[in-house]
Specification:
Layout lengths: L7 E5 L2 E6 L2 E3 L11 E3 L3 H12 L5 E6 L5
Parallel strand pairs: 2-5
Antiparallel strand pairs: 1-2, 3-4
């Protein structure tokens, strides 16, 4: 909100870079302490990825995110 969108894409040379926020906060625990989180992509994010890739002629797609994929 302060710095810009959490998900975005840009082209550099023959590559397209996807920058994605894949952190899903699970909310506070029942005892009031900080909750955990896990990695996931929303349906909106998946649609964004499909749209960028479909409209790009890039030879390389680089994906960056906070939590690595398993």
């Amino acid at each position: 909100r302060v710095y810009g969108p959490t998900d975005y894409a840009f082209h550099h040379g023959s590559a397209v870079f996807l920058v994605l926020d894949n952190v899903v906060y699970e909310g506070p625990k029942e005892d009031g302490s900080a909750g955990g989180y896990h990695a996931a992509f929303s349906e909106d994010q998946l649609a964004f990825i499909r749209n960028v890739v479909a409209h790009s002629d890039a030879a390389l797609v680089v994906v960056t995110m906070h939590i690595p994929l398993d």
